[in-house]
Amino acid sequence: MTRITVTVGETTLAATLDDSPAARDFAAMLPLELTLSDYHGIEKVADLPRAVDTSAAPPSYTPRTGDITIYAPWGNLAIFYKPFEASRGLVSLGAFDDPIDPLIRDGAYPVRIARAD
Predict the structure, then answer these.
(1) Which of the ends of the chain has fewer CB neighbours closer than 10 A, N or C?
(2) Is residue 29 left, alpha or beta, with left meaning phi > 0 and alpha meaning psi from -120 to 50?
(3) Cβ neighbours of residue 47 under 8 Å, at least 6 residues apart?
(4) What is the spatial distance between Cα 40 and Cα 42, in angstroms, rounded to a whole number?
(5) Secondary structure class of 117 (helix, strand, coil)
(6) Pairing of strands 87-88, 60-61
(7) Per DSSP, what are the bridge partners of residue 92?
(8) Neighbours of 12 (CB within 10 A)
(9) Model-level pTM?
């Protein structure tokens, strides 16, 4: 498992990535400077610089609040701030260790995701 930080403004949140091929591939991209925006009032999404290898991932995932995921068909990062139904192509990468309140804001905004090491 890989510990990461997600920095939004002056706030740094702790998260832990899963011990999975997809999460390790995502971790290999870090650090990342991304722009999060809202999607359907349940998740924050951002485009990644390249696709994450999800070939070994289960076909679907049921996200919970605080989950960090990849939506494989679009190749984007998705951070859920509300739970949602099982979705085909959604792959778990990990979850936040801290409350994610600082991520729940209007408009698009920059974040930095880095290894916590």
Answers:
(1) C
(2) alpha
(3) 34, 35, 75, 76, 77
(4) 6
(5) coil
(6) antiparallel
(7) 69
(8) 14
(9) 0.96
